[in-house]
Amino acid sequence: MPTKSKKTKNVRVAAIGGLGEIGKNMYCIEYNDKIVVIDCGIKFPEDDLLGIDYVISDYQHLIKNRDKILGLVITHGHEDHIGGIPFLLRQLPGIDIYAGPLALALIQSKLEENGLTKDCQLNEINEDSVLDFGEMSVTFFRTTHSIPDTLGVAVHTPEGIIVQTGDFKFDLTPVDGQPAPNLQRMAKLGSDGVLLLMSDSTNAEIPTFTKSERFVGTSIRNIMGAIEGRIIFASFASNISRIKQASDVAIEQGRKIAVFGRSMEAAIKNGIELGYLDYPKDTLIEPKDVNKVSGDKLMILCTGSQGEPMAALSRIANGTHKQISIVPGDTVIFSSSPIPGNTASVNHVINGLEEAGANVIHGKVNNVHTSGHGGQEEQKLMLRLMKPKFFMPIHGEYRMLKIHTELAQLCDVPKENCFIMENGDVLEVNHEKAEVVDHFPASDAFVDGNGIGDIGNAVIHERQLLSEDGLVAACATVKMKTGQILSGPDILSRGFIYMRESGDLINQAQKQVYHAIKQCFREQQHVNESMLNEAIIDALQDYLYDKTERKPIVIPMIISV
Amino acid sequence: MPTKSKKTKNVRVAAIGGLGEIGKNMYCIEYNDKIVVIDCGIKFPEDDLLGIDYVISDYQHLIKNRDKILGLVITHGHEDHIGGIPFLLRQLPGIDIYAGPLALALIQSKLEENGLTKDCQLNEINEDSVLDFGEMSVTFFRTTHSIPDTLGVAVHTPEGIIVQTGDFKFDLTPVDGQPAPNLQRMAKLGSDGVLLLMSDSTNAEIPTFTKSERFVGTSIRNIMGAIEGRIIFASFASNISRIKQASDVAIEQGRKIAVFGRSMEAAIKNGIELGYLDYPKDTLIEPKDVNKVSGDKLMILCTGSQGEPMAALSRIANGTHKQISIVPGDTVIFSSSPIPGNTASVNHVINGLEEAGANVIHGKVNNVHTSGHGGQEEQKLMLRLMKPKFFMPIHGEYRMLKIHTELAQLCDVPKENCFIMENGDVLEVNHEKAEVVDHFPASDAFVDGNGIGDIGNAVIHERQLLSEDGLVAACATVKMKTGQILSGPDILSRGFIYMRESGDLINQAQKQVYHAIKQCFREQQHVNESMLNEAIIDALQDYLYDKTERKPIVIPMIISV
């Protein structure tokens, strides 16, 4: 056997997404020209990404290295871990995907929706699976999170074990039927020797141990026990444990259950098929029948707990929902915490519901929510179980990653062995040392409708400007040889100010454009369209800012003849 | 090899102390006529045990079975785990004792004080020690608590592993130099299969994860950083980590340190010898020199954080301390929580200190204390690590044991496999089943000065009555043949009310006694002393209760001639 080159002795670890952000998790572990990919998520756009449906990663690193890819291993079925799969498969058909039963069912639905079922091989795994990839192998350990079937991943390489925790909390008393975290297996990895730990940083700013889901169940039971009217229960569709806990209480109270929202319907269908959920006959009723059941015998399960404008709950709140109007006596339970950035939207929905007469119960006040991610004590517990030589915080914004490395240092990982990385940074690690040696492009790619990557930051910036100050267009037909203005200039605007109510402003703006065109022809010898455009933009922007302190996008539309 | 009788196949597990109480921990694990004893503690008397110094266990079960005892294994050096050793050795000399370095040093001091060094063999152990006792062997696992060198104990029997956790929290970031809990070893025991888990129940009522000692260090540093005057720092002498954290900050601030209180002096001496504490030359000063150092350059470490009346701090608070009087600008830090039952005494000391002009900083408000025992999350973590077949909560009052069994059930130990026991109850357990089959005497024994066991509950009850309402004695010299009262009756009282200020009450009481004696002779033919005593007690008790609503102990003292 020939001596291997230095390069092949290192494991190369990188994030395609998931570092410096919450969302679009995707990591790759490379050894000797073979790559194991872990997760493929989307990120939900923040409020400033106007008109964008999702954000995914730029997959060009994987496309370039397509022949090295051994497979895509999925930790769990949340969108920020599986949502990118359809977009990846369009660019890289034929990848083998390995996932637990629930995640697999959710992926299957996605592939069916997108007509991609033939573009990959789906393989069901559980925590006892071993993926034998030759020099590398992959094993798993059971964790707990806000969705069942959550796995941590251990990639065994000749240089040592690379552990990626997936999303986790240590829920030591998970709700019925779900197993506790496999502490023994984690400790065994620690005893065997973990080279690099890549661990979930989401709650690195929370100093405590996250409450068990069971604890939330108790609160939900107490709260629902005191409600006499109709209950509208909103949570993440993926939080099947939560849906089960609320459903169990509703069933005990003899309530029928109606489900609103496409993702909630899909989640409940999957949950029933996989045995996580169980509804007695005739408990689930059709949305159209909700008004046939008296309020005290009804619970509505719905999406929209994040204030999403098109979700059922927002439409209920603003009175535009077809089947449901709030009546006094209704109680709406938000069994969730607003993701930062959604707070305003959620508050807007809560206000709407309360104004319509509902009683609204939400997270922090009432213990009707707990995080799916472990706090500092659990992050330290993972560190102490794994006892890694090197540490790389993942799944978090910069400040979370930073705090997580401080925790690692308190747990005896030397500071120089902790790596706060960015998407695209490549960490080379072997049994002796680790360093960041390379970087590949891994920027955001925006998904807008069906288009991927046809929208860049410049487009988003324009949408931001449009959303803030609107646009003003100036049209004129100009004879380019003479400078004669044959028609116009006409001014129209969208999202700016009510021009009609400011007749003077329009008149003056028209005059500004007129003079700008005339001046252009006076001062220049060979006037072309772009010179006119520039002159109009300058003149109109200055004038409008001067009069209104706004900066609408100015669009000159010269028809040259 | 002959078939063993059924009896020898069972492991017999019992507590000699520690169940239904916080204190005097002592457990025994018996297999095939051999006994491993774990810990030998005292209990500090509660307020209603008047005049009692300590409470220990009745050791008669061990005395009867002296030939079976293999050794006494110590989990850590707190008084409620080692304090009973001198009393045990007086009754059972020659026992082998196994303990970690710090506990061993503390035991050694006790034995020297009591002249008992020749009565046992002391053996130093650490978490890697294996005690080979033939059919049984004992191994250890490192835990964390409020004293260094804390071990959990695993007794390996042919029927399975019996784990006794000792006192523990999961301090995942212990202060400098101390190791974290050995999660890998605990998980390995769980993988190998734990037959019975006996686990610390102290904080079963606290739903959270107990804060790390390091967190307290940060608070102490912040608080001490803002103090300009003299600092008086009070904590348990055994809490060496706490003493180290306060000392480190004081040293950084250029303060000299004076130590008050015998147990604090001993703790610091041991801590230095064993390497847990380190003071630069000339940092520690003699108590007599405290007034030679300016306040901003001095910290006083002292005992008395529980309000003990004879401890340094109480004497400082009430102005009877020889060297130290409180002056304005002094800050007293209570780095402890009052043990329930001591709250009133602690408040009394705090009031005294504040009245004298000190600024007092205490536990809950300022994060200057954290418990040494794990909360519910840590108790569940221990259960999940050990995955026991049977469970027996130890180290706690009944309600704590009760809640702890509920946690065990949430962690998948069946209810019928959980045993809430009392001191003296014997649990027989084999690899298939467990049941309580026997009970031996294991009552409290009171230590009052040098006497052990010469004080029983009746004496304590009398002390209670005396302490509540005092005593009233009636003396008279009576000629028994005639009934003539030769002198008296005289009335004297202690702890009742100021009789002198109630001349009328005395006069009337004398008359009651006089009439009672006379009536006795009138109505009875053969009057004896006990008849007179009874008559006097009845008369005087009724009269005094009628007039004062108090029930002093009435002591008739008839001198019969």
Apparent shape of chain A: globular
Q: Any idea of the CATH topology of the largest domain in chain A?
A: Metallo-beta-lactamase, Chain A
Number of helical elements of chain A: 17
Rg of chain A, Å, rounded: 28 Å
Q: Indicate how many domains the architecture of chain A comprises.
A: 3
* Beta-strand segment tally of chain A: 26
Q: How far apart are the termini of chain A?
A: 76 Å
Give the averaged pLDDT of chain A, no decimals: 87
| Helix content percent band of chain A | 25-40%
Largest sheet of chain A: 8 strands, mixed
If interface size is counted as residues with C-beta under 8 Å from the partner's C-beta, which chains form the largest one?
A: A-B, 26 and 26 residues
CATH superfamily of the largest domain in chain A: Ribonuclease Z/Hydroxyacylglutathione hydrolase-like
Brief description of this entry?
Chain A has 561 residues and is an alpha/beta fold. Helix content of chain A is 32%, strand content 25%. In chain A, helix 5 links the parallel strand 6 and strand 7.
Which structural traits does this protein have?
alpha/beta, 8-stranded mixed sheet, 6-stranded mixed sheet, 3 domains, hydrolase (chains A, B), 25% strand, 561 residues, Metallo-beta-lactamase, Chain A, 26 strands, 17 helices, Rossmann fold, 32% helix, homodimer, RNA endonuclease activity (chains A, B), Ubiquitin-like (UB roll), RNA binding (chains A, B)
Describe this structure in words.
Two copies of one chain form a homodimer. The first copy, chain A, is 32% helix and 25% strand. Chain A is built from 17 helices and 26 strands. In chain A, the strands form five sheets. An eight-stranded mixed beta sheet of chain A has the order 7-6-5-3-2-1-20-21. Chain A has a six-stranded mixed beta sheet with strand order 8-9-10-11-12-19. In chain A, strands 15-14-16-13-17-18 form a six-stranded parallel beta sheet, with helices on both faces. Chain A starts with 5 loop residues before the first helix and ends with a strand. Residues 1-8 of chain A have low confidence and may be disordered. The interface between A and B is medium-sized, with 26 and 26 residues.
